[in-house]
Amino acid sequence: MDASRLRGVSLFEGLTEAELARCAAWFEEKPVPAGTRLVNEGDFSYRFFVVLDGEIEVRHELEEVRRLGPGDYFGELGLLTGDRRSTKVVALARSEVATIMTWDFRTMVAEHPLVAERLQAAADRYRRDDAGA
Length: 133
Description:
Layout: H1 17-26, E1 28-32, E2 37-39, E3 47-53, E4 56-60, E5 63-68, E6 73-74, H2 76-81, E7 88-91, E8 95-101, H3 102-111, H4 113-130
Antiparallel strand pairs: 1-8, 2-7, 3-6, 3-8, 4-5, 4-7
Helix pairs in contact: 3-4
């Protein structure tokens, strides 16, 4: 994947060009038709996603939790905790995502402490929000 596709993602802000290129090499771009379910609630967690284009909806049970667009990401909570997916994620419009598998995600987190810190902060924020805090 071309590193320029990750340049506008806040998760990767502050990385050098070489670090960004290293991260981009782990990702695979995928077009996603509208209506495609990317994640099912209760699934095992094995992928992390970055939204490159389009609109994505995150639902818990029947309730919309959040909407995501270009530059947003999801899937880190399950990968960081080892828990099953707590939400269902569906493309509302034709979208494009970048995905990374568990083993590459773990390498990325180990090699880039700034990325790891941001991912953990996001996961903590989602847990607080889900708990009603």
